[in-house]
Design brief:
Blueprint: H1 2-19, H2 24-45, E1 48-49, H3 52-60, E2 65-69, H4 73-77, E3 86-87, H5 108-115, E4 122-126, H6 134-144, E5 150-153, H7 156-162
Parallel strand pairs: 1-5, 2-3, 2-4, 4-5
Helix pairs in contact: 2-6
C-alpha cells in the first residue's frame, strides 16, 4: 500500500510539473518578445528608459521633474499611482496622429500645457507594465512636441509596487 501511495504521489508531482505551468524556456520566449518590442519602441520614439530604482532615487533627491501616468483616471490612476504623478490618458495601441477620442478628449495643446514651457525638463512617462503601450505613446508625443529629456518607465506601476515603494491614491 505504501508503495502504491508513493507511486501515485510521484505521478501527481510529475503531472503537476508538466501541466502546472510553462517551463523556463517557454517563459523566455515571452520575455524576449517583450524586450525586443520595448527596444524597438525606444529606438523609434527617441526617448530614454529609466528604472523604478533610478526614479525613486531622483525623487528622493527632490529632482525637478514631471511624472505622467498614462492610464485611465478612474480605473487606474485614482486607485494607485506614483506619488506626484499627474494623469494624462494615452491609448495602448500606437497613436501616430493626435486623436482626442483616444486621449479622453484632450488636445495636443493641452498636453503641451501639462508638459510646460521648459523643453529640457525631465519628463518621466509610465503606464501599468512593460507590455503596455500607453507610456510609449506619451513619451513619443512629448518628443514630437519638442521635449528633449523624456524617459519611459517600462515596468510602470506594477514594477513600482513590486519594489514596495509607496503609492498615491485619489482622495
Amino acid at each position: 500500500m505504501k508503495k502504491v501511495c508513493l507511486t501515485i504521489l510521484a505521478c501527481a508531482v510529475l503531472l503537476t510539473g508538466c501541466l502546472g505551468g510553462e517551463d523556463k524556456f517557454v517563459r523566455e520566449v515571452t520575455k524576449e518578445a517583450e524586450a525586443v518590442k520595448l527596444a524597438k519602441e525606444t529606438v523609434r520614439g527617441g526617448y530614454d528608459l529609466i528604472t523604478v530604482s533610478e526614479l525613486k532615487g531622483l525623487m528622493d533627491q527632490n529632482k525637478d521633474m514631471l511624472i505622467i501616468d498614462t492610464m485611465p483616471l478612474e480605473a487606474s490612476y485614482n486607485k494607485n499611482h506614483i506619488p506626484g504623478a499627474v494623469q494624462f490618458l494615452f491609448p495602448i495601441k500606437p497613436m501616430n496622429e493626435w486623436n482626442a477620442a483616444e486621449t479622453d478628449n484632450k488636445t495636443a495643446e493641452q498636453y503641451v500645457e501639462l508638459l510646460g514651457p521648459d523643453k529640457d525638463r525631465l519628463i518621466v512617462v509610465y503606464c501599468g507594465f512593460v507590455k503596455c503601450g500607453r507610456s510609449d505613446n506619451g513619451a513619443v508625443w512629448a518628443k514630437k512636441l519638442g521635449y528633449t529629456n523624456v524617459k519611459r518607465l517600462p515596468g510602470g506601476i506594477f514594477a513600482w509596487k513590486g519594489a514596495e515603494y509607496p503609492v498615491g491614491t485619489a482622495g
